[in-house]
Amino acid sequence: MTSVVIEEIPDRVTLAVDISNCQGNCEGCHSPFLRMDVGEELTKEVIDSLIENNYGVNCFLFLGEGNDLKALLGLAEHVRSIGLKVALYSGRQEVEDEIYRAFDYVKVGPYMAKFGPLNESTTNQRLYSISHEGESFTKTDITSRFWHRGIDPNASH
Ligand code: SF4
Fold first, then answer.
1. Percent of the chain beyond pLDDT 70?
2. Which pLDDT tens digit goes with each residue over 28-55?
3. 88 lines ligand 1 (CB under 6 A)
4. Where are the domains of the chain?
5. For residue 47, what are the CA distances in angstroms to 52, 126, 134, 143, 154?
6. If you measure from the C-alpha of residue 66 to the centroid of ligand 1, how many angstroms do you get, rounded to a whole number?
7. Residue 139, exposed/middle/buried by CB under 10 A (0-12, 13-18, 19+)?
8. How many other C-beta atoms lie within 10 A of the C-beta of residue 134?
């Protein structure tokens, strides 16, 4: 499933795509079907066509990371090569450095109902903006940008 969203990544018009084969185990998972192998395979060609059909988006968000890291990194590189920012909502507590190198925004942390989603200041989840210089990267925690405003509470991967 895809949708154009303006809240999930601050200051970006974002095309968000649900990724199946989720390896997460969030308590109260809102999309159990995403733990299965469902939907169309996301390829570079599919990404090109989604972007063509959603004129004006400047960020591509993977809602979930699937179960093939190499493929995910290849798709992230492709999105960047066509000039868009690339973002990932991971359900894991932490991700590999190679993910931070490949993405401009990374959300980490499983959804935990008792701490609330990203737009609550009690949330355990964190959204980082990543700046890159060669192989090094710097993470800036921008989670507080969500507080005092709405966000789709279902976007809790
Ligand atoms: S990351 Fe998303 S799809 Fe995966 S278990 Fe958590 S809420 Fe469900």
1. 92
2. 787 888 888 888 889 999 999 999 999 9
3. no
4. 2-146
5. 9, 26, 26, 27, 23
6. 10
7. middle
8. 6
